[in-house]
Structure to design on (240 residues):
């Protein structure tokens, strides 16, 4: 495990916990910019790119001790791990490539899904390049990605919560970080993202309670109630 994720392993993987407000009163977040051109990429690869991009920032050498991103990443990870999804296209998407962060691409070359996760910082101090991007309007039509590839970690989204794509992007970003911390990963794996409901979701929750899978419980700042289980990550996609 890289040093940037050690606080995640120490604090978030011991079960449900109450995270106190930021001690300095400064709210920090990672901005995740979803590239949504016309027509946009499909929903599932967008979420898969979001999961990978968020983790890629944390595992980047620049986020490790002595690196240029070390201080902002460590301060963010050491407090509440908030993420804010925004959407961009054309020139606005090109502009955010100049900001510190990692862009991840999933899908075909003719219409790939791309997400850029930016180095986290105070929400009141985001550059104009970011603040002009809309937070809403990230909904995408449901797609049918088929069964997840064997052997890949799968982030199962709680379909019953009916989260927007922006909210779901933040949750899968949380999930990839928790999974990497729990498994001691030092590289970004290819994540599959799928929806789960009914008996499958119940089985996944049971796996999380037994320690066989990694669960994300939301703080409840937006869209869902505090403590809601939004995602479960497993490496045994054919089990539930």
């Amino acid at each position: 495990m890289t040093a940037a994720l050690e606080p995640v392993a120490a604090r978030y993987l011991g079960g449900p916990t109450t995270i106190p407000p930021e001690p300095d009163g400064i709210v920090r977040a990672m901005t995740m910019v979803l590239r949504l051109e016309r027509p946009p990429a499909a929903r599932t690869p967008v979420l898969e790119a979001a999961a990978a991009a968020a983790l890629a920032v944390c595992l980047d050498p620049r986020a490790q001790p002595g690196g240029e991103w070390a201080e902002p990443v460590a301060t963010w990870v050491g407090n509440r791990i908030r993420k804010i999804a925004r959407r961009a296209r054309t020139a606005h998407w090109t502009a955010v490539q100049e900001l510190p962060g990692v862009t991840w691409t999933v899908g075909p070359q003719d219409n790939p899904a791309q997400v850029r996760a930016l180095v986290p910082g105070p929400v009141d101090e985001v550059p104009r390049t970011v603040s002009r991007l809309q937070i809403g309007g990230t909904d995408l039509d449901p797609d049918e990605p088929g069964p997840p590839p064997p052997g890949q970690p799968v982030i199962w989204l709680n379909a019953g919560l009916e989260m927007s794509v922006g909210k779901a992007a933040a949750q899968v970003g949380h999930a990839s970080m928790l999974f990497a911390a729990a498994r001691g990963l030092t590289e970004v794996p290819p994540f599959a993202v799928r929806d789960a409901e009914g008996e499958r979701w119940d089985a996944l929750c049971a796996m999380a309670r037994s320690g066989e899978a990694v669960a994300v419980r939301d703080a409840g700042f937006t869209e869902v109630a505090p403590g809601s289980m939004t995602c479960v990550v497993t490496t045994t996609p054919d089990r539930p």
Notes: The longest helix spans residues 165-183. The chain has one domain: 3-18+28-234.
